[in-house]
Specification:
This protein has about 140 residues and is α/β, with parallel strands linked by helices. About 35% of the residues lie in helices and about 20% in strands. The longest helix has 11 residues, at about 30-40.
C-alpha cells in the first residue's frame, strides 16, 4: 500500500472558520475523514503545524521512506527558504497544493519557494486540490 502524507502549514488548522469565502466551510478533519474512506487503497497520514521548523522536521522524517508528500505550506510557501531547501534535500516526491488560486490573489502569493523542487503544483481547486494530488501519486 502506498504511504502518502498531507502536510499543512500555518493557519490551515482554522479551515472551516477562516476566510470561508476563500477556503470554504469544511474543516480539514471533516474533509480528511472523507478522503481516507475514498482512498482506502492508500495509507494516508495528515500533519499540521503553525511552526516552520516543525514542518521542516516532518519533511525530513518522512522524506526518505514515504511514497508521496502533499505539501500546502500556506503562507510559508511565499517566504521560507528553509522549507524550500528541505523539499530539495529529501527523496520523496512533493506535490505542492493550494486551496485558493494564489495567482489570482495578491502579488506576494505568486512567489513560491516550493515550486522549483516540487514534482508538480496543484492550485485553486478548493479542497479538491488535495484529492487531485493523491491521484497524481496513484
Ligand atoms: C494557501 C494560499 C496561501 O497564500 C495562504 O497564505 C494560505 C493558504 C492556499 O491553500 O490557498 O494560508 O496556501
Amino acid at each position: 500500500m502506498k504511504k502518502i502524507i498531507i502536510i499543512n502549514g500555518p493557519n490551515l488548522n482554522l479551515l472551516g472558520k477562516r476566510e470561508t469565502n476563500i477556503y470554504g466551510t469544511l474543516t480539514f478533519m471533516e474533509f480528511f475523514n472523507s478522503i481516507i474512506k475514498k482512498f482506502d487503497n492508500v495509507e494516508l497520514v495528515h500533519f499540521q503545524s503553525n511552526i516552520e521548523g516543525e514542518l521542516i522536521d516532518k519533511l525530513q522524517e518522512v522524506g526518505f521512506s514515504y511514497d508521496g508528500i502533499i505539501l500546502n505550506a500556506a503562507a510559508y510557501t511565499h517566504t521560507s527558504v528553509g522549507i524550500g531547501d528541505a523539499v530539495k534535500a529529501i527523496e520523496t516526491p512533493v506535490v505542492e497544493v493550494h486551496i485558493s488560486n494564489t495567482f489570482s490573489r495578491e502579488d506576494f502569493r505568486h512567489k513560491s519557494y516550493i515550486s522549483p523542487n516540487a514534482k508538480g503544483v496543484i492550485v485553486g481547486f478548493g479542497l479538491q486540490s488535495y484529492e487531485l494530488a493523491i491521484h497524481s501519486f496513484l
